[in-house]
Design a protein that fits this description.
Layout (H helix, E strand, L loop, with lengths): L8 H33 L3 H29 L1 H21 L3 H29 L4 H31 L4 H4 L1 H15 L14 H24 L4 H23 L13 H31 L4 H6 L2 H21 L1 H19 L8 H4 L1 H23 L7 H29 L6 H29 L6 H9 L8
Helix pairs in contact: 1-2, 1-4, 1-5, 1-7, 2-3, 2-4, 2-8, 2-16, 3-4, 3-7, 4-16, 5-12, 5-15, 8-9, 8-16, 10-15, 10-16, 10-17, 12-13, 12-15, 13-15, 13-17, 16-17
Length: about 475
């Protein structure tokens, strides 16, 4: 059901995007601070990755429960609860004095993000009618969400260099408090009044546990070996938990994921494609950050500033995609975006040891940014249009889950590949491993293109494109 409200919907959009900006920013703000965190807390290379993936996996694993709970309890209520958890966990992260505490509080922070994100996208979907207004709102959403990822690197560099790494977490506290107070006052409530009040906690626990075990097995394989008993044991445990998740979903009276929703071809394709694209994108941020700091010798702030062209490219291309999608179709725009993104990734794969930012980092960064901005807006539209309001929470949770889980698994796989190809010490060995990782990122993005072209036909997006073309004003939206 649509939200009834007297507040200006664009004010609602600003408040929702502020909170989402904080969540997305936090997913990347940590990257620049990783060397400082590693030095202060004494983390080894394997555990360093968990500073990112503890957040990402819990975020992704509980997004589905967050989306379902929002439909039942109220999207505004879950949004506010998520803000409290996220903001509190941010404070605890800044106060952490050991790697165990930091990894644990990062997981708690991911739980808060898992309640915020699906509620936020659902609020947008029920606040704006299908057509030009929703497309315009989603264009803003996509630009802020992806721009926040790059801006997090800049802010993280400045805070780490000017103060210390705990401030990358402390900065969330005043923003979270302001967003909570403003949302409490201005954001309207909406929920599915006809849904049965049931929560599939077992489903959320098994899918999250299974994915964490899978990532751990992939990471462990690089040091222990793929045939080691520990590695095999975690792979078996991961697949057992994921199989249990499917069984639970098939039998639960109110499943976390109603598997029949995947019969909607547009939703299925958008999620599979986003999963693969994000598998490359997370790793791209991770390895580029390491390259500019460890190879080019940039200090944290300079490393962060070096990603500003990426932010600009995302903002520009997301706006252009909003204008061109109704004219040429969502599929051609997304396809072009993926081709450009893969081209940018392959340019990164030629980075030399004695390289420079202007010739070896910037070209690939600009091309990849222009591509990614053109991917996110069409895929978000494909994943969320043409569904009943009572399914918006589930669809939003699935789409966000695809991004987070894809990113975590992609980072684990490509980090393992890079480590396996890094023979010896020094910059030359490190860059050699990076080359394989960047080729892998391009392969993930191109796999997403193949999936979209193979599964999505014109008839599957006919409703979306009919709505868009009936509202020509969207062409001016940016």
């Amino acid at each position: 059901m649509s939200a009834k409200h007297s507040t200006n919907p664009w004010l609602v959009l600003v408040l929702i995007c502020l909170a989402q900006f904080m969540v997305v920013l936090d997913a990347t703000i940590v990257n620049v601070a990783l060397p400082s965190i590693q030095k202060d807390l004494g983390l080894n290379e394997a555990n360093l990755q968990w500073i990112i993936n503890a957040y990402t996996l819990v975020f992704g694993g509980f997004l589905l429960l967050g989306g379902r709970a929002g439909d039942l309890l109220g999207r505004k209520r879950l949004f506010l609860i998520g803000l409290v958890i996220f903001t509190s966990a941010s404070l605890l992260n800044g106060l952490a004095s050991s790697e165990g505490m930091l990894i644990g509080f990062r997981a708690l922070q991911g739980l808060g993000a898992a309640l915020i994100s699906p509620a936020a996208l659902s609020i947008i979907s029920v606040t704006f009618e299908e057509g030009k207004e929703r497309a315009r709102a989603l264009g803003v959403w996509a630009a802020i969400a992806i721009g926040g990822s790059a801006f997090g690197l800049v802010l993280g560099g400045w805070l780490t260099q000017s103060f210390s790494w705990p401030w990358i977490f402390f900065v969330n506290v005043p923003v979270g408090i302001f967003a909570f107070i403003a949302a409490l006052r201005f954001v309207p409530e909406s929920k599915d009044e006809h849904a049965h009040r049931s929560y599939d906690i077992g489903g959320a626990v098994t899918v999250t546990g299974g994915l964490m075990a899978l990532v751990y097995a992939i990471v462990k394989a690089e040091t222990a070996g793929w045939t080691a008993a520990t590695t095999i044991g975690f792979f078996i445990g991961a697949f057992a938990l994921l199989a249990a998740f499917v069984v639970i979903e098939l039998r639960a009276p109110e499943p976390l994921v109603r598997l029949s929703i995947f019969r909607t071809r547009s939703l299925l394709t958008a999620n599979l494609t986003m999963f693969l694209v994000m598998s490359g994108m997370f790793a791209m941020f991770f390895f580029n950050t390491l390259y500019v700091q460890r190879v080019l010798g940039y200090h944290p702030l300079k490393a962060g500033v070096s990603f500003l062209p990426f932010t600009a490219g995302i903002m520009v291309s997301a706006g252009l995609a909003s204008g061109f999608a109704p004219r040429v179709g969502v599929r051609p725009v997304a396809a072009l975006g993926m081709i450009l993104t893969a081209a940018g990734m392959l340019l990164f794969a030629r980075m030399p040891v004695g390289g420079s930012y202007a010739t070896d980092v910037l070209p690939g960064m600009i091309i990849a940014a222009l591509g990614l901005g053109a991917v996110f807006m069409p895929l978000t539209l494909i994943a969320t249009t043409g569904l009943d309001d009572e399914d918006q929470g589930l669809a939003s949770g699935l789409f966000n889950t695809s991004q987070q889980i894809g990113g975590a698994l992609g980072l684990a796989i490509l980090s393992t590949i890079a480590a396996g190809r890094t023979h010896g010490s020094g910059s030359a060995a490190l860059v050699h491993g990076f080359h394989y990782a960047f080729v892998g990122t391009a392969c993930f993005v191109l796999a997403g293109l193949v999936v979209m072209l193979a599964l999505l036909r014109k008839r599957h997006v006919a409703r979306i494109e009919a709505i868009e073309r009936a509202e020509p004003a969207v062409a001016g939206a940016a």
